[in-house]
Each structure stands twice: as C-alpha cells, then as structure tokens.
Amino acid sequence: MKAIKKILFLIFLPGFLKAESLVNCGGPNQPCQACDLLQVFKNLIDLLLFSIIPLLAAIIIAWGAFRSLLGMAQGKVEEWKRGKEVLTAVIIGIFIIYSAYALVSLFFNMIGVTSFGGWDPKNWMQINCGNS
C-alpha cells in the first residue's frame, strides 16, 4: 500500500507543482538561447515561491499544530512548546521569504534601470527571450 501511495505521489506531484513548464525551449522550431537560462532560473524561482513553499508551509503548519494540540491534550508542556516553536518558525520564515521577494521587486521598480537584453527592470519577474 505504501508503494502505491509513493507512486501516485510521484505521478501527480509534478502536475500539481507545474514542474513541466520549467524549460520552454529545445524543440525543433525553438532552439535554446542564452536568455532561456534566465527563463529557467525564473521558472524555478516561481515554482519554489508559489508552489513548493506554500505546500511545505501548509504541511509543516499542520504538523506543528497537531503536535501542539496533542501535547496540550496529553498535558505535556514540552510538546506544546515544540509545536508552538514550529508554528512560529514557519510563519517567520514565510514572512522573510516573501518580504525579500517584495523588496527586490520594489528596488527594481524604484531605480528604473533601462531595459537591456530582453530584461525590463520595471517588470523584472518577466523575461522576454523573443522565442515565445
């Protein structure tokens, strides 16, 4: 039964995480360029920030809450404190990650650097390689 769960997990996880769209080049009519490396990097960051991190955060929050509630129900103060520490750490971590993303976006929007090589700092999270 565990093997079936693992196989189903491995089959459906990439579709859920949109991992198939990491590389947008390499077909017969679409050769890869140097700019596509930036696109792959951007797609990887988007996959991490908007698919993997929220999923992991939800799982860890549920685990921390379960641990905290179980510790409280059993009267184990130490387990309750550990669950509370997990919840606090996840919330602080999520805040740091998304604050950094917002600060980088704000920085590039405020400095107004001119566009070059298919990269526009005003829309820094969008890369135009000219082949899409």
Descriptive key words:
132 residues; single chain; mainly alpha
Task: Describe the SSE topology.
Elements: H1 2-17, H2 34-74, H3 77-111
Helix pairs in contact: 2-3
Order of SSEs: HHH
**Radius of gyration from CA coordinates:** 21 Å
Described by the principal axes of the CA atoms, the overall outline is flat
Beta-strand residue fraction: under 5%
Please state the average pLDDT score: 76
DSSP E strands, number: 0
- Classify the helix fraction into a percent range: 55-70%
Biggest sheet record: none
- List low-confidence stretches: none
Structural class: mainly alpha
| Distance between the amino and carboxyl termini | 43 Å
Annotation field: number of helices: 3
Task: Summarize the structure in short.
This protein has 132 residues and is mainly α. Helices cover 70% and strands 0% of the residues. The chain is flat.
